[in-house]
Amino acid sequence: MPITLDRMTKGTKGRVVSIAGGRGAVLKLAAQGIAPGMTIEKVGHLRGGPILVKVGQNQVAIGKGLASKVIVRVVTE
Hints:
alpha+beta; six-stranded antiparallel beta sheet; about 40% strand
């Protein structure tokens, strides 16, 4: 069942299903390596602040509002 990135728990991996935002959100996330089909891992978050995500070998911080637009399907390995 798909959930938003901001609702994932720390250490969970997921595959990006879609971006529920406009062109600006899609482009901003794509610049950070986050696009449909990519596997990401939630590393952690700051209370009310950015969410840390591992994409490939890189870690990026995404604002909570933008993270709420990233729809993921949790994967189990």
